[in-house]
Amino acid sequence: MYLQKTIKTAVKCSGIGLHTGRKINMTIKPAEVDEGVVFCRRDLPGNNKINAGLHNVFDTTLATTLGMNGTRVSTVEHLLSAFSGVGISNAIIEIDSFEIPIMDGSARPFVDLFNKIGTRIQSKPRKFMVIEKPVSVCDEQGKAMFLPSSKFEITYDIDFDHPVVEKQSYHMVFSPEMYEKNICFARTFGFLRDVEYLQARGLALGGSLENAVVMDDEKVLNKEGLRSPDEFVKHKILDAIGDLFLLGMPIVGHFKAYKSGHRLNNLLLKEILAHEECWRVVHYFNGEERNEKSYSSFPLHTISEVYAG
């Protein structure tokens, strides 16, 4: 995890767009070191590239949307979450629509693709942001914060007034194995009344029981039921991991959230960057920490302790 990584070879997939309901074709290609993740709209002429970075977040309503030079790409969080989950730092994504295909509503189809074609370690170290002091943001509904930790930890709490969901909490120390086993399968979820409202206004036209957990006022409508009893909070973690990917480097710290979403996740990243005294950037060489920006000492040892769980 301390070296940059890309995929071994290009891979194609297709699926339905959540909002348009139309078929979307996507090709994911290897990229060079330090190139990061770049989206390329093949359905548009001219300057159609968008870098996956915090500075290009255009909208966080319903999904995370990126924008650059007038070009947009939406619903990027599940794919970015899969990149983070398997440690991919560089990739080029070519699509023929303004949104990433929703697949089954989780990140597992993307993780399965990457496991099938394999990944390639690159020669340059990754940078890591080490959280040294607490930073938090909140609104009238939720809260999100970073706390110091020697590992990348996530604690997430949700509270929905619904008999199936109610209060759920989950804590994890991140590792690729933990992500693949316990997080990537969790599907997006919603309430039937909200889906009907959105579709009546021309949104979520591709939403169905095949790509989301849908509930009426009392129960889950999907015949197969839930993939785990706490699938709801695990999907919120999946989304958050995708949103945090936009920082441009993995985090060594504890992300805690209560009823957070794309908007608060995005605001938290902006808040941490605004307080340089609360973090420092390091990379690793032969397993040893090398500082790039240091404001104080921090008890951090080997990368296996940080990202192996």
Judged by helices, strands and strand pairing, the structural class is alpha+beta
Alpha plus pi helix count: 7
CATH architecture annotation name of the largest domain: 2-Layer Sandwich
* Assigned CATH superfamily of the largest domain: lpxc deacetylase, domain 2
Average pLDDT works out at 91
Q: What's the order of the H and E elements?
A: EEEEEEEEHEHEEEEEEHEHEHEEHEEH
Largest sheet: 5 strands, mixed
Strand order of the largest sheet: 2-3-9-4-5
Strand content: 25-35%
What does this structure look like?
The chain is an alpha+beta fold. The chain has two domains: 3-124, lpxc deacetylase, domain 1 (Ribosomal Protein S5, domain 2), CATH 3.30.230; 127-307, lpxc deacetylase, domain 2 (lpxc deacetylase, domain 1, 2-Layer Sandwich), CATH 3.30.1700.10. Helix content is 22%, strand content 34%. The strands form six sheets. It has a five-stranded mixed sheet, with no helix packed on it. Strands 12-13-19-14-15 form a five-stranded mixed sheet, with helices on one face. It is globular, with a radius of gyration of 19 Å.
